[in-house]
Amino acid sequence: MSIVFSIAAAMLMIAAVLTMATALRGPSTLDRLVALDVLIALCMCGLGVWTAFSLDSTVVPSIVALALLSFVGSVSIARFRVRDDQK
C-alpha cells in the first residue's frame, strides 16, 4: 500500500512544480492567483495523503485552516485587485 502513497506523493509533487511554473510565468495577476489557489489545494491534498498514510487524524485541522485561508485570500485579492493595464 505504501507504493500507492508514494505514487500519489510523486504526482502531487509534479503537479506542484508545474503549478509553480504557471504562477511564475502567468501574464496577469488573476492567472497567478489561480495558480496559487491550485498550489494550496495541492498542499491540502498532500496533507490528506499524509493523513491516510500515517493514520493520524491530527493534521485535519490544518487542512481546514488552509482551506479557510485560501478562500479568504482569494476573495480579498479578487475584491481589491488593481487592473493590470493601469500604471
Automatic annotation (TrEMBL):
<keyword id="KW-0472">Membrane</keyword>
<feature type="transmembrane region" description="Helical">
    <location>
        <begin position="33"/>
        <end position="53"/>
    </location>
</feature>
<keyword id="KW-1003">Cell membrane</keyword>
<protein>
    <submittedName>
        <fullName>Monovalent cation/H+ antiporter subunit F</fullName>
    </submittedName>
</protein>
<keyword id="KW-1133">Transmembrane helix</keyword>
<comment type="similarity">
    <text>Belongs to the CPA3 antiporters (TC 2.A.63) subunit F family.</text>
</comment>
<keyword id="KW-0812">Transmembrane</keyword>
<feature type="transmembrane region" description="Helical">
    <location>
        <begin position="6"/>
        <end position="24"/>
    </location>
</feature>
<keyword id="KW-0813">Transport</keyword>
<dbReference type="Pfam" id="PF04066">
    <property type="entry name" value="MrpF_PhaF"/>
</dbReference>
<dbReference type="InterPro" id="IPR007208">
    <property type="entry name" value="MrpF/PhaF-like"/>
</dbReference>
<dbReference type="GO" id="GO:0005886">
    <property type="term" value="C:plasma membrane"/>
</dbReference>
<feature type="transmembrane region" description="Helical">
    <location>
        <begin position="59"/>
        <end position="78"/>
    </location>
</feature>
